[in-house]
Amino acid sequence: MTAHASLERALGYTFQSAALLEQALTHRSHSGRHNERLEFLGDAVLNFVVAALLFKRFARLDEGDLSRLRANLVKQAALADIASRLTLSNYLRLGEGELKSGGFRRPSILADALEAIFGAIYLDGGFAAAEDVISRLYEPVLRNVDPQTLGKDPKTLLQELLQGRKLGLPVYNVIATHGAAHNQTFEVECFIAELDIRVGAGGASRRAAEQSAAIQAIAAVESKAPQKGGRKSKARKSAQLSLPVAVAQESK
Amino acid sequence: MTAHASLERALGYTFQSAALLEQALTHRSHSGRHNERLEFLGDAVLNFVVAALLFKRFARLDEGDLSRLRANLVKQAALADIASRLTLSNYLRLGEGELKSGGFRRPSILADALEAIFGAIYLDGGFAAAEDVISRLYEPVLRNVDPQTLGKDPKTLLQELLQGRKLGLPVYNVIATHGAAHNQTFEVECFIAELDIRVGAGGASRRAAEQSAAIQAIAAVESKAPQKGGRKSKARKSAQLSLPVAVAQESK
After folding, report:
1. Of B45, B52, B43, residue with least CA distance to B115
2. Phi/psi of residue B94, each to 5°?
3. How far away is chain A from the Cα of B26, in angstroms, using its nearest Cα?
4. How does DSSP assign A104-159, residue by residue?
5. pLDDT score for A233
6. How many Å apart are CA B42 and CA B121, to the nearest integer?
7. Nearest-angstrom CA–CA distance, B57 and B144
8. Which of A217, B76, B104, B169 has an alpha carbon 20 to 30 Å from B44's alpha carbon atom?
9. Test the A interface: residue of B37, B118, B131, B134 with most A CBs within 10 Å
10. CA-based end-to-end distance of chain A
């Protein structure tokens, strides 16, 4: 299994069965012994291990917040990030078609293969081995999680920002629509009366345009009414930090 | 912990921390130290353990079938069944209001408490303890699983029954609707041309009426064109056996 020695080093786990790792790396486009059953198993062990990590790390979060955090940590984009850190694309076995169309870069293929690897480790080394590898890979991710904002969309963040300053809710209005029925774009404005903020943004759906407008509005609130003091300035920082995550979700 | 000794016997697990079991049995209507975070954790360990049991037991099922089976084994009704076997309602701690309205019989409350118990066992005794208890409780359930039919709805089962006999697809028609817009009932007929079968059923939605009609149609196909021979008669038996499950789902 020298071919996979560097991957095993990155995972921090050496397989007893080279065939199991091979199968975890095999996309269904490549051959019959592919990774989809392993992915089913790996998804389940991943969800559990991340749930347990969050449960223990955030002792005061309720189950709704724990669910939101977990959903964000195990979603395709998060898994594809970890797969990239492992340079997993170098090891994938894809069929001709997928190879030519750049399948080894596709987030879904990378995420699925990573889950399949978790399943393979569980079969190969038992639960403790899988828990160990998953915990290690998620350690840097968990260190940077902001439990108050991760996975919240911009409209929610804007609302919480305004509530934290005892200000009224923002109002969203559709200003214009362009294009034919099935190919419309929407222009939306977000209006915050008490701060006299009025910002606009466009999007392929009303919801997408509103979320973009909310991002603009958060920036406007931050610059027009910067908040001072401990607790509140932490909330402000959180909202800023979380935007890239929230936007990435929206474009899914 | 004598108060819970009989529950612990039924579970086959004795808690080191009586407080953890107590918390798992506490509904949020009762007090602040309730079971919702434990339920989050228990749901995750349950999903994983059942996934692993199915993976190992059904080596030839693909991940789609495995997912369907698991969804059915961990759904509220299945968990409430297990909770009843454990007479869990005798041990629940509910608030006044829930007590008076019979909350101790509510499937959702029973299912949530059972998941919370799984989470508590994991915290109290580690993964192996939780795996052991869940495996034992699911053993009789798994023994009776028909992987071909569990969790499939009547329309799907009828279609597969007809395909197995090389017959064409059934046709569903709405014959009549009754009542006002937000309180309509639908009468639907299911027509199988090659067998000259025409059966009708009603329901609160078009889909519900179609599923009821499909149940009638399966019975009609069975009696009009009983199938002989090994493989096919097994398929017939499966379809019959699965109906209670399918109907129970529909009424959810």
Report:
1. B43
2. -120, 160
3. 15
4. GG-HHHHHHHHHHHHHHHHHHH-HHHHHHHHHHHHHHHHHT--TTTTT--HHHHHH
5. 39
6. 9
7. 12
8. B104
9. B37
10. 37
Look up A43 and say whether it is catalytic.
yes
Reported ipTM: 0.76
Q: Which chain B residues are Cβ-neighbours of A36 within 8 angstroms?
A: 62-63
Task: Say how many C-beta atoms besides its own lie within 10 A of residue B28's C-beta.
Answer: 17
Residue A232 is encoded by which pair of tokens? 């509140």
Separation CA A66–CA A54 (nearest Å): 7
B39 labelled ligand-binding: yes
Q: Which of A59-63, A115-119, A181-185 has the lowest average pLDDT?
A: A181-185
CB-nearest to B41 from A43, A51, A127 is A51
CA dist B169 and A197 (Å) reads 59
Banded model confidence at residue A61, pLDDT cuts 50, 70, 90: very high
- Span of A202-211, B4-13, B128-137, B221-230 with lowest mean pLDDT: B221-230
pLDDT at A174 over 60: yes
Distance, CA of A201 to CA of A212 (rounded, Å)? 6
- Helix/strand/coil for A228: coil
What are the residue boundaries of the structural domains of chain A, listed by start? 2-143, 154-250
- The matching CATH number, chosen from 3.80.30.20, 3.90.550.10, 3.30.160.20, 3.30.470.20, for A154-250 is 3.30.160.20
Q: Is A31 exposed, middle or buried (0-12, 13-18, 19+ CB in 10 A)?
A: exposed
Q: Could you identify the residue written with the tokens 């996309």?
A: A27
Partners of B100 in beta bridges: none
Question: What's the rounded Cα separation, in Å, for the pair B180 and B158?
Answer: 31
Topology of domain A2-143, per CATH?
Ribonuclease iii, N-terminal Endonuclease Domain; Chain A (1.10.1520)
List of chain A residues whose C-beta atoms are within 8 Å of the C-beta of residue B62: 36-37
Quote the CA–CA distance of B74 and B49 in Å, as a whole number.
11
Cβ contact (<8 Å) for B52 and A131?
Answer: no
Q: What is the DSSP string of B63-124?
A: HHHHHHHHHHHSSHHHHHHHHHHTTGGGT-B--HHHHHTTGGG-HHHHHHHHHHHHHHHHHH
In degrees and rounded to multiples of 5, residue B144 shows phi and psi of: -100, 5
Average pLDDT of A84-105?
92
- For B197-248, what is each residue's pLDDT tens digit? 999 999 999 999 999 999 999 999 988 877 654 444 344 344 333 343 333 3
CB B217 within 8 A of CB B190: yes
- Model pLDDT for residues B77-92, shown as the tens digit of each residue: 999 999 999 999 999 9
Distance from the Cα of B118 to chain A's closest Cα (Å) equals 12
Q: Which two tokens stand for residue A25?
A: 């790396």
Q: Is A112 annotated as a binding residue?
A: yes
